[in-house]
DNA sequence: CTACAGCATTGGAGCGCTCCAACAATAGTG
DNA sequence: CACTATTGTTGGAGCGCTCCAATGCTGTAG
């Protein structure tokens, strides 16, 4: 279990510890002969550098901390992929932690990440108060993904939720729909800009908006639809706040005898793997998740390298993915 | 950005650095008066211990490394939750890494986790060759989740896939089904024990088995069903290798005019969040994922504390979750 | 043959912490 | 009252590494 140290490698290769250090860091000022000897000794002993000792001695870290608010959400998996790709390519490691969407747990997770003195910290949709983020930003570089902030010391990467919903509304209008309802995300992250985007888009088309209050779950989507069914003036299309909500809505519509998309069109948001299932085949709005991660990593690394001090605010363009749950409205145009 | 050190706290509190260390580690042999002074100074400076320096000096680590083969799979999220809960409770931190189901990337991920000299390593469904696992096990304690191994130095936590499929078959038989087909998982992880479980269960009931070769995706499930449709002797029930496959199968069945569960029953495996959607409502087999994580963490910590040297092999019992895709067969019992 | 680059190599200090032996101060024993 | 325990506190060594100033070495110019 005891791993060899640099000293062991040095002794075996017949050189000094400092020389081994130079070889391990790929310094050019080492003779080929000694380099070969060191690498051979290292190979024989199965030596690999001790990351913690290295970072302690160099007073620099090659670690980026990532706090994922919810590991269960596949959304974050792709963001992490993007982060991972860029970090790895630049010689940084990721250490990931999870907060489980609870402010208290998230705070602990943050604390624990900071105790590793990471070069930077990426917080994916954190729920901690702004003050906690500020205090983290005093200690290391911080980038926020899927959460906005006015703090001048942190970078942010978000999608333009308003624009995304706008795409959905435009699509429906171009198919001929005029009575388009929105099932909103209540207090959920990004629900507000999506709702505003809906209202703006409807106004732009001179249409009457209709917002049903809902949430980011399939049960909530079904409930909102049942409320809609109980009232007059059934819409011909629904724009949900996310994919789960949309699937719940579809389910309730089918239970009530509506066919999707023949009788009513439904659009989701997020383009989760669920939406892509042929059984579901949901028209939805895609966020460039991988790009979120890449940009977040790049923002962090720019700060780490001291290339930039002013905050950067990325606002990415979502795109519409048309599948099988949208179609022109049938008959009765009014 | 520069964080205070123990020395700073000691100076401010008017004590020695060693005393601050004792306070930080919660030692009982510190007078209340000094303890208070130290904690106050630490609070004022916003001090928190440097995890890396600590682990370097103590030659012990409070870090457990976790390699997740695929972050996109929600299965692992719950395993990580279980690991996290137990680790946190015992004062350990998790550092997570991902291998993206590629042996080469996974190997690098392993290397990078090892460079932190973690107290233990949990590998979730790794795809690297056994030799790589053995070499990791030479350096630290290792537990494998959702992958078996004969290595005497590693612990394993798995579900009894054969038994899980057996539960599904028993359920269908008790409903009155006799023509039950299995869509298998091909080369996928755990596909073999599930297939064997199917054959065993069918034999136990004196029924004729029928295995359609398939894969762990919804497209593959649909394809297998279309092949089934082209032949004679349509089964009255299908046991899929996983939930995605089952959803694809249902979709193809409905396209062909079959109603589920009236005309044909379908059972999945894994109890993913997909299965729980009311729109899907899939009868499926649940694996105790959180329990996987808890047991893995406990196995690791036992080894870390030197309480056990012999390997432990956990084989957990899956359970059946009955939802809306199974029902007694209609008429024509033959 | 000395002087001086230029280069590869090295010992030592130190990163922030833990651990240990040693210590002072107080309490308990005969 | 000297003596040993007991309790609380401390300086110093050292974890595995990086960094720096200093070293030895070769080669070339004066």
UniProtKB/TrEMBL annotation, chains A, B:
<feature type="domain" description="HTH lacI-type">
    <location>
        <begin position="4"/>
        <end position="58"/>
    </location>
</feature>
<dbReference type="Pfam" id="PF00356">
    <property type="entry name" value="LacI"/>
</dbReference>
<keyword id="KW-0238">DNA-binding</keyword>
<dbReference type="Pfam" id="PF13377">
    <property type="entry name" value="Peripla_BP_3"/>
</dbReference>
<dbReference type="InterPro" id="IPR028082">
    <property type="entry name" value="Peripla_BP_I"/>
</dbReference>
<dbReference type="InterPro" id="IPR000843">
    <property type="entry name" value="HTH_LacI"/>
</dbReference>
<dbReference type="GO" id="GO:0003700">
    <property type="term" value="F:DNA-binding transcription factor activity"/>
</dbReference>
<dbReference type="InterPro" id="IPR010982">
    <property type="entry name" value="Lambda_DNA-bd_dom_sf"/>
</dbReference>
<keyword id="KW-0805">Transcription regulation</keyword>
<dbReference type="GO" id="GO:0000976">
    <property type="term" value="F:transcription cis-regulatory region binding"/>
</dbReference>
<protein>
    <submittedName>
        <fullName>DNA-binding LacI/PurR family transcriptional regulator</fullName>
    </submittedName>
</protein>
<keyword id="KW-0804">Transcription</keyword>
<dbReference type="InterPro" id="IPR046335">
    <property type="entry name" value="LacI/GalR-like_sensor"/>
</dbReference>
């Amino acid at each position: 279990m005891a791993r060899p140290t640099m000293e062991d490698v040095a002794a075996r290769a017949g050189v000094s510890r400092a020389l081994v250090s130079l070889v391990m860091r790929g310094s050019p000022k080492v003779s080929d002969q000694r380099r070969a000897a060191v690498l051979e000794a290292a190979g024989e002993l199965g030596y690999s550098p001790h990351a913690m000792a290295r970072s302690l001695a160099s007073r620099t870290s090659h670690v980026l901390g990532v706090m994922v608010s919810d590991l269960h959400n596949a959304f974050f998996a792709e963001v992490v992929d993007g982060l991972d790709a860029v970090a790895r390519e630049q010689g940084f490691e990721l250490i990931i932690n999870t907060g489980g969407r609870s402010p208290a747990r998230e705070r602990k997770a943050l604390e624990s990440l900071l105790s590793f003195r990471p070069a930077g910290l990426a917080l994916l949709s954190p729920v901690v108060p702004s003050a906690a983020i500020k205090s983290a930003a005093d200690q290391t570089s911080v980038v926020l993904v899927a959460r906005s902030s006015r703090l001048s010391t942190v970078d942010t990467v978000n999608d333009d939720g308003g624009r995304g919903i706008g795409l959905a509304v435009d699509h429906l209008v171009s198919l001929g729909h005029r009575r388009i309802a929105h099932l909103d995300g209540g207090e959920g992250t990004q629900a507000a800009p999506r709702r505003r985007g809906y209202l703006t888009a409807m106004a732009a088309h001179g249409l009457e908006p209709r917002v049903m209050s809902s949430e980011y779950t399939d049960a909530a989507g079904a409930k909102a639809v049942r409320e809609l069914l109980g009232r007059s003036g059934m819409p011909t299309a629904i724009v949900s706040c996310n994919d789960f909500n949309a699937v719940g809505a579809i389910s309730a519509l089918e239970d009530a005898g509506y066919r999707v998309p023949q009788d009513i069109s439904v659009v989701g948001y997020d383009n989760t793997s669920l939406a892509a299932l042929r059984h579901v085949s949901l028209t939805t709005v895609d966020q460039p998740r991988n790009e979120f991660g890449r940009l977040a990593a790049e923002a962090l690394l720019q700060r780490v390298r001291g290339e930039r001090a002013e905050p950067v605010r990325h606002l990415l363009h979502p795109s519409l993915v048309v599948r099988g749950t949208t179609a022109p409205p049938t008959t009765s145009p009014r």
